Amino acid sequence: MKKLILLLTAVTLIAIAPANAQKYGHVNSQDILKAMPGVDSIEIQLKAYQEELMTMGQELLNEYNIKKDKFDKEAGTMSTMMRQTKEQELQNLVERIQYLQQNMESDLQEKSYSLQQPFIEKIQDAIKAVAEENHYTYIFDVQILLFYENGDDVTALVKKKLGIN
């Protein structure tokens, strides 16, 4: 009787195991992002923003050079207070130029993130929908996986969900 119960338990566990099996998939989100319509405009907008920042920096530099030349010509005839005021103005311009140079890269990264975010959200929503429709427990991005042998590549399913060929 004990053996029969053990046998029935084992058979039941074997029958139930496939029903509870976890299904894994992987996706290449960068490949999907590159294929999305409209994403090519991000690069154009980033270049325009970078040119805007460069123009702003050049204008500050031109302003500094003009004021510095004028200061150098008139410094000998200025009062001490006027010279100190003009020196402080020049120092403030130098600080603004340095601030712009130091923050340009992070500003570009923030701009890039804000432009990509709507596309990334669409991709994440599509991945979630594919996972739910196809009963995936996990879907990993191949960009962060060190090794993947088993599991399904669901990139094509996500592209289809987004209407990308």
Report on the structure:
The chain is mainly alpha-helical and 165 residues long. The chain is built from 5 helices and 3 strands. The chain has helices spanning 2-16, 29-35, 40-74, 80-133, 155-162, and strands spanning 24-27, 138-141, 152-153. Strands 2-1-3 form a 3-stranded parallel beta sheet, covered by helices on one side. α3 runs antiparallel to α4 and α4 (80-133) packs across α5 (155-162).
- Please report the total strand number as a whole number: 3
**For the report, how would you describe the main beta sheet?**
3 strands, parallel
Rg calc:
31 Å
Element-by-element helix/strand order: HEHHHEEH
CATH class: Alpha Beta
For the residues shown, what is the average pLDDT? 86
C-alpha end-to-end distance: 60 Å
CATH superfamily: Skp domain
The third-level CATH topology is: Protein Binding, DinI Protein, Chain A
Helix/strand structural class:
mainly alpha
What's the gist of this structure?
The protein has 165 residues and is mainly alpha-helical. It contains five helices and three strands, in the order αβαααββα.
Helix and strand topology:
Layout lengths: L1 H15 L7 E4 L1 H7 L4 H35 L5 H54 L4 E4 L10 E2 L1 H8 L3
Parallel strand pairs: 1-2, 1-3
Keywords summarizing the entry:
5 helices, mainly alpha, 6% strand, 165 residues, 72% helix, Protein Binding, DinI Protein, Chain A, disordered N terminus, 3 strands
